[in-house]
Design a protein that fits this description.
- The chain is α+β, with helices and mostly antiparallel strands.
- Helix 4 (104-116) links the parallel strand 5 and strand 6 (119-122).
- Helix 3 packs across helix 4 and helix 8 (289-300) packs across helix 9.
- The chain contains ten helices and 22 strands.
- It has helices spanning 5-8, 28-44, 73-86, 104-116, 129-139, 148-156, 176-184, 289-300, 345-357, 383-392, and strands at 2-3, 19-20, 50-54, 68-72, 94-97, 119-122, 143-146, 166-169, 188-195, 200-206, 209-212, 216-221, 224-229, 235-240, 243-247, 257-266, 269-274, 279-282, 285-288, 308-315, 319-327, 364-370.
- 28% of the residues lie in helices and 30% in strands.
- Strands 2-3-4-14-15 form a five-stranded mixed β-sheet. A five-stranded mixed β-sheet has the order 7-8-9-10-11, with helices on both faces.
- The model has no long low-confidence stretch (mean pLDDT 91).
- The longest helix is centred in the first third of the chain and has 17 residues, at 28-44.
- The protein is globular and about 65 Å long.
């Protein structure tokens, strides 16, 4: 473990240089490609003092199709100042950093530290829940930024929270079941809503409703979240028809950036129904994958979360169908079936219980047994990789009888 104070004082936030942050586990060829288009776009558009991040976050898929989000350092500091003030973060705090710099949430912590003057303690290497917890206790850290997968690991190990510690949880939805389990262990978690395009945190989530932080204004635009803020990104760097382009944010007539995230307005509250990719159409019906995943884990138990994943697979007739991915784990295998992997009858019954609680179009239509469920370094499931694997290996889904 090492202090990041030297990195913070290196002049990153005060110089006019542009920097693109990439996962160093990407191929060298892909890193060179993105660095090249980043430099070309910033040079041709006379842009300085900006940072760049891939929209795909930490994915390792070897693809040139991702957009680079270009954010000014000024926008980062606008966000950092608002968050420090709102949460009363000061030089007296210590931040245990468990997010990488190529993740916008990790860089946001450094911006906050630059303004507030607190120390950051960086965990060396990949995420390890025991190393995180030991460092948390030994350093007396008071804050951290985490993703739901990391929270799950703490709960799964039954680790109790130290006193005076808080964590901002973003980068994905913190399910009510996981939030309750963490709270029972004393973890003071603050679920947040954020976007790479807004330099990290936009608001906090309370009872599924979004409360905007002071530097952001949120409205509803055709059932989608629209945001106005000084922390808004400058544009996307993309290759369009062979040309490197800087695509400015698309704003509505009132000057708000319209996201793909679906919401419902209830009185004066804005309820987050799901990220754009988590709301799908099945036979013309709008389905919340978050709601279905919550119901699934209510039936099978939170401890089995790494071995099961519910997703909407493309279907030519119904647009999507609900499919379940299951890791071929020995603890789940029915040993009476010798020819192929099959879930134990007890697990099949739990899935049937789920089937009885949902609408017909929300039922699991097929089950795919996989060697593993591919995830990013921060635990986000890579659905495109799953579909590619199914197609490449011609894995057939099994019907799940009611």
């Amino acid at each position: 473990m090492e202090s990041a104070q030297n990195a913070i004082s290196s002049g990153l936030w005060t110089n006019d240089e542009n920097t693109l942050f990439l996962n160093n586990r990407m191929s060298e060829e892909l890193q060179n490609y993105y660095q090249k288009i980043f430099k070309e776009a910033t040079y041709r558009n006379k842009i300085s003092a900006h940072l760049g991040f891939l929209t795909s976050g930490t994915t390792l898929v070897d693809s040139r199709s991702y957009k680079v989000v270009l954010i000014s350092k000024k926008a980062f500091l606008e966000s950092a100042q608002a968050i420090n003030k709102f949460f009363l973060i000061s030089a007296n705090d210590k931040w245990l950093q468990c997010l990488p710099r190529f993740h916008v949430g990790g860089m946001a912590v450094e911006a906050r530290a630059h303004l507030a003057g607190f120390d950051i303690m960086n965990l060396a290497g990949s995420w390890n829940v025991e190393a995180f917890y030991n460092a948390l206790v030994s350093t007396g850290s008071t804050w951290s930024s985490m993703v739901p997968t990391q929270v799950y690991d703490l709960v799964n190990k039954n680790l109790k929270a130290p006193k005076k510690f808080k964590a901002l949880v973003g980068g994905g939805r913190l399910s009510p079941l996981l939030a309750k389990s963490a709270k029972d262990l004393g973890w003071n978690l603050i679920p947040t809503y954020g976007l790479t395009e807004l330099a990290s945190t936009v608001g906090v989530i309370e009872n599924e409703t979004i409360k905007a932080l002071p530097h952001c204004q949120i409205v509803v635009n055709n059932d989608k979240i629209a945001i106005q803020s000084k922390a808004l990104f400058t544009g996307y760097v993309q290759v369009i028809k062979g040309q490197v382009e800087l695509v400015k944010p698309q704003l509505n007539s009132s000057g708000y950036f319209v996201t793909d995230d679906i919401v419902q307005k209830l009185g004066g509250n804005i309820m987050l129904l799901g990220r754009g990719q988590d709301m799908v159409k099945v036979s013309g019906e709008l389905v919340s994958m978050n709601k279905l995943r919550d119901l699934l884990f209510k039936n099978i138990g939170l401890e089995q979360a790494p071995s099961f994943y519910l997703m909407a697979a493309p279907d030519p007739r119904t647009e999507h169908q609900i499919s379940l991915m299951v890791v071929k784990s020995e603890s789940l295998r029915d040993r009476n079936v010798k020819t192929q992997f099959q879930l134990q009858p007890a697990w099949l019954q739990k899935l049937k219980n789920y089937q009885q609680e949902v609408m017909p179009f929300e039922k699991i239509k097929s089950v795919y047994y996989l060697d593993q469920i591919p995830r990013t370094e921060l635990g986000k499931v890579q659905e495109k990789m799953i579909m590619q694997k199914i197609e490449k290996e011609k894995i057939k889904g099994e019907l799940l009888n009611d």
